[in-house]
Protein 1
Amino acid sequence: MRTKIHFKDREISVRARSTPVEIAKELGVDLKGILVAKVNGVLVDLYREINEDCSIEFLDFNSKGGKQVFWHSSSHLMAIAIKELHPEALLGIGPAIDEGFYYDFYNLKLGDNDLPTIENRMKEIAAKDLRFLRKQITKEEGKKLLSTNKFKMELLDQMNGEITVYETGDFIDLCRGPHIPSAKLIKGIKLTKVAGAYWRGDSKREVMTRVYGVTFPSTRDLDEYLKTEAERGKHDHKKIGKELELFETSSLSPGSPFFLPKGAIVYNELLKLAREMDAKYGYQEIITPIMAKSDVWKTSGHYEKYRENMYRVSPFSNEEEEYALKPMNCPFSTVVFKSKTRSYRELPLRFADYGFLHRYELEGTLDGLFRTRLFEQNDAHIFATKDQVEDEIIRVFELMEEVYSLFKFVPIMTLATRPKERIGTEEEWDLGESILKKVLERKGYKYTIKEGDGAFYGPKIDVYVLDFTGRPESAYTVFTVQIDFNLARRFDVKYIGSDNKEHVPIVIHRAVMGSIGRFLGIILENTAGDLPLWLSPTQVAILTVTDKNVEYARKIKEILSKCGLRAELDDSNATLDYKVREKQLKKIPYLAIAGEKEEKAKTIAIRDRKGKVKYGVNPEEFASKCADSISARALDITV
RNA sequence: GCCUCCAUAGCUCAGUGGCAGAGCACCUCACUUGUAAUGAGGCGACGUGGGUUCAAUUCCCACUAGAGGCUCCA
């Protein structure tokens, strides 16, 4: 019996039940660095017999599948080490993740200090050249084998068909595989963190101890990884925010950032951008209360679903009367809509609302500017007829593209469909989801579908942008566009149609920049604090060399300020070296040096953030070039 | 909310069951300097509340805040 094997554009015939290792030999493929085979698109152990005609690929660590298998095997390796050191621990699951792997354990108490011990044990075990042996078993055999572990039993109970275990030395684990041929391929090992995680992601179930790690085929790869991690730390917006004196957090109000003077400038520039864009795209701004009677949220349905996360307040004099700080703006736009009788001729009506929102987020979820309890969105609600919805959402994305292009943000989209808990009719959900699909297709966006992830009142498109590493798995959530059939109905919002009858409009929710604070955080992380000129709190710092030229430096500052530049003067008698260093660390885009030479020639010397110096620059010309860059909201600084 | 870790000066970090250490920042003085740190001096701190102890910043407990995960995210 022979089996036909396709490999790239070749086809060979091999003895039936050959393994990928044997096939590679036939093909003359070098197996150095190869971790796993892909047979008809499915990952397969290198030592598993192949019984059918197939196409084959050989994957090393540089492939997605190779990494996945390598890390999955590493999680087994870790489990072996931990079981040796802590025999009482029960295994949960141990998958590969985007970057590394984890394994969950029950009945295991570990701290960060324990990780090096486990790491070292892993290294010792790996050196032993342990094989990962695949074995097919029956459910009954599995039950015998795993009877002492309730978690594995639970998994086993839900399994149908082929059940496999992997044997590595004395260690046996219920596992679908595949695995790398030997643990000795795992060279660079780093356990990164210990965390608690709920069994099967259910907060009502047991808390497991989750140990995260990452491994590489060489220690050099590991060093490389550690270097990148350190680099990532430099992009942390909380750190940058502190260094650049942009915002503070305070235990006085956890989750509510305090914007310092410099941070307020950046924040307001972003708001200004938001307002300009909304005006340009036909939105009318409204200003609505920061709180309202709780009845409002009962009507909208939020009270029922999110009551625990709302700040409820009452006046001291009347504790009966319950108000709540608004957690979202939606209901208020209906008041504006209903301020007069609306005709279909007025639609679509687009109301922008920038009020402060308060949500009591769980303390463990707060994160700098990314997850806060107080935030402000460039929110808007569009009231439209059924026929207008599609084009209106297209328009939202046009606005988005214009804003995002300023930051070279590349949006990634997901379509979130009806959740289990929802309001509205199935027909409406069908229509909403189909409109969103159509929009995504018309715009030519690539997207993935997240089943059941929609808001309780309507389907939505979630928009993400990449972080500075450009890896999709670490993208930031920025905003959602949602179609809502219910808001208008619940608040009794109607317009008069061309048929002279009352109709209920459809509402579109959108907040193109999401939370302004979070948007700023994303910009900070992406730029590592090197803000574009138009966003920089200080755009140019004027430095004196000695105090002979203080008067001249003041004049320069006045010239630049008059042209609208945010200029600051440092005429202290510190050395120029010192001042340059200080301003560079503050990431100020331009330094204008006003010394003896400059005063004589009536010029300035300009040093940019990258350290390039240009002498003999005319101050007025410099200012007008800067003004151009600012009004264009240019990303790069190239004056 | 759950798990692990952490909390020393404005910042970054040492350290100890027995008087609290540094660098930077800040203030003062000297220096008058040409593109990433001039020198000297000074000011300034053990998150909060309990407990153990002759003695606690140090050990224990609780709380608060922070970091990373989990869950959640209208």
Protein 2
Amino acid sequence: METTWAPRLREAGLRVTRPRLAVLDALADHPHADADTLVTVARLAHPTISPQAVYGVLKALVAVGLARRVEPAGAPALYEVRVGDNHHHLVCRSCGAVADVDCTVGAAPCLSPSDTAGFVVDEAEVVFWGLCRECRARTPEDTAQVLQHRNRGGAHA
Amino acid sequence: METTWAPRLREAGLRVTRPRLAVLDALADHPHADADTLVTVARLAHPTISPQAVYGVLKALVAVGLARRVEPAGAPALYEVRVGDNHHHLVCRSCGAVADVDCTVGAAPCLSPSDTAGFVVDEAEVVFWGLCRECRARTPEDTAQVLQHRNRGGAHA
DNA sequence: CGCTTGATTTGACTCGGTCAAGACAAGCGG
DNA sequence: CCGCTTGTCTTGACCGAGTCAAATCAAGCG
């Protein structure tokens, strides 16, 4: 990938610094990484970067819209540079793996709730929970039990 | 409301204790309360209950399916006793208020992702983000700014 | 080159929640 | 009704993820 991030940063009104380039490259290589992973990866390009610097960079990137923060229940926050399009996420209950999924429907009925209780809705966030291919293959006998864990609210699909 | 919780607990294989009844009553009165609120409310019925006891009770209730845990991004977890039906949530970006919203669609297209990347999906979790009636009325001038905050990923509705 | 201002470093700190050991009581058999 | 067993509650220490603040540093301007 190796996009030239510098102009993107400048367009957004941010200065171009080594920590920011290192984090952006790390994000491009690891589409759904948590802060801790990004520290490790970013250190390949910038060995002295501190965890707090990464938090600061990520906060700045999210604030200007260059990155997006995703917070699956029960896991540390993940970050991604794929922004501007409308996509959702598949999350594996077992290993936490995340995959992107496009919303192929223009006007999804379920996403325009009939009774909004006076709310003005500006975004619908969808998370699909399940088991990834690897975890299904690795622990077929546990599948039923794992699925039972969050099945209580009623499955949708 | 004052449902008789005792048989529900016993059916689920749990003992009937004062802390559990207090927390269940608190949950019935406060449909989307966080753990801290539940401690406060439960203490009206059981003044000596400890926060950790509430956490323990909630964990037990969620494990047997008598309660559901909801974790909106950037806020402490909420609990509700409305289980078994399939409903989603409206969350106010400004004050964190939560409202239930039924999914009135039987088979929602967006909830059956075309490409599941090898995942077996068992649940689709939907969170609608926006502003509640009160916050819209209270801070009309801030509305645009607040909405800008998470608008970056592309609004759905 | 040097200034200004935003960015980074360092370290302490907060919050939400978990873990573990012992005291306690629900619900069983007698 | 009594006492036992086992699950539950209490108490207190602990943890991870993330934030805050002061001081240092450097990007980008003139």
